[in-house]
Amino acid sequence: MKKSMRVCSHPLKLFLMSTVLWIGLSGCADQPTGADLVLTNGKIITVDETLPEAAALAVRDGRISAVGSVEEIAASIGQNTRVIDLQGRLAIPGFIESHAHARKLGMLKMSLDLSHIRSWEEMVALVREAAANQPPGSWIFGRGWHQEKWEDLDVPTVQGFPYHHDLSAAAPDHPVWLRSANGHAAYANARAMELAGVIRETPDPPGGVIVRDAQGEAVGVFLENAEDLISAAKATFDRDRSPEAVKAEELRMIREAEDECLRKGITSFQDAGSTFETIDLFKELADSGALRVRFWIMIGDSLERIRQRGKEYRMINVGGNHFLTVRAIKQYIDGALGSRGAWLLAPYSDQPHTSGLNTVPLEELRATAELAMDYQLQLCVHAIGDRGNREMLDIYAEVFRAHPEQSGLRWRIEHAQHLDPADIPRFAELDLIASMQGVHCTSDGPWVPKRIGDARAEAGAYVWRKLLENGVVIANGTDAPVEDVDPLANFYSSVTRRMSDGRQFYPGQVMTREEALRTYTVNAAYAAFEEDIKGSLTPGKLADITVLSRDIMSVPPEEIPGTEVVYTIVGGKVAYQKE
């Protein structure tokens, strides 16, 4: 352990602490009881207006028991209290990831990470290497590519996508399935398309596109609902595996996701859409006390299955330890801007023949909204394009008018990335949560104007300031594995809007640091009806705490990305400690 981190579990080890603290300890050293954990000698930002900042806090039975000065909290130290000297470090409420995909995040850790590649050739090389190390017939998975980040392509392309032939030659005996960073486009090689039965005559499914050249040949790229064609082939492959093997793989995905979250200071995770089968695995882990991160889950399944099973899956605080709640439905109205699947009011600037895609029929979305009302579930709908957002706002307004007896529903728009200025006030009028991702702004920023033009980008792209000024509650997240689940990179994006090339994406829409912290703590808790137990370091709330190496509330902005997580504390127990 580094000398800069002193962890003490007995008063006799506290001589290196301040004289004031030692005096406080001498009066309680003989006490057999006391707090389970004390953090002292730090800067504690509580996100509680009654006591915004403190120097120490105490934890008992998994909850915050006291917050105050070093002298005040010294009285809580007993013989068995674990005392952590923060040495001036910053402690904040545990980060709450308000929109990400746990299973997919875990899967990313078990497959090819394509998020850092900078060329088509590099992706092909990774597939070739994977094929050399896997038995023929096994699937090769990857995620994270984005064609806008590739160097100049020296191969034929269609809509900016190279043909699949290089991938097919790199792994002729392996089906290859590589999803883009945003998950709304994917590459398949010839073997995967053969198993899926994709031929020249295969029609585009509703809400999806098989990218083809002028002769009708499939390039190998599948957009939006067309991805289901390849996913069905993978499901057929899985049916030949033993149930035990499939379950072990699924459980490993959850474990990998938890590990990554704890390393990044995340104590709660709002999962943006899991099937009933995946929820069953979460419930099994929650019932046995095996979850290490608190999960709040949106049901992401077909409308018919939700109609049949959704009511019984509304679960609040499974197991009584606040590690699992299921209380929302996830749906989609459109796709992503990068793949030109976001549904726009006007055509794309760089491809005027298209305005994007409506991925789920409006009638089905209305039916889902009625079902959410009936089952007392929040409705959380993915809407990225300005038309997708407007259509969803119209549906919400229609359903709310039909149910005047219902109020305070906290329904959500997931992403709300590109808005027509006329629709911004409607979020507050309808009392909706804008569940947004700060890092999407800086990640997408370099190419957004190319897609929608400068005027539309400035007026309605990632308009956090305009939403906040209209009284809208914003909850922040990363959409991992679309982006790194790292809250610190996301916080930096939220307060600077600075892109990798150093430019700022319309900086007038930045959040203050206080606003950004609230979007990641108390606002995110509010968006899940959990503000009474999470989101601030208030006595009585769950002792979920993140300790950072730097004070992100005051250091120069350029120092925020280099900040490290020192401790992640969940329920008063150290779940991660940086060595």
Q: Keyphrases for this structure?
A:
Urease, subunit C, domain 1, disordered N terminus, Diaminopimelate Epimerase, Chain A, domain 1, alpha/beta, single chain, 579 residues, eight-stranded parallel β-sheet, TIM Barrel, 3 domains, six-stranded mixed β-sheet, 19 helices
3D architecture notes:
This protein has 579 residues and is of the alpha/beta class. The protein folds into three domains: 1-94 and 536-579, Urease, subunit C, domain 1; 96-100 and 246-535, Metal-dependent hydrolases (TIM Barrel); 102-239, Roll (Diaminopimelate Epimerase, Chain A, domain 1), CATH 3.10.310. The chain has an eight-stranded parallel sheet. A six-stranded mixed sheet has the order 4-3-8-25-26-27, with no helix packed on it. Strands 10-11-14-15-17-16 form a six-stranded mixed sheet, sandwiched between helices. Strand 20 (324-332), helix 11 (362-375) and strand 21 form a beta-alpha-beta unit. Helix 11 crosses helix 12 (386-402) and helix 14 crosses helix 17 (487-496). The radius of gyration is 25 Å and the shape is globular. Residues 1-31 have low confidence and may be disordered.
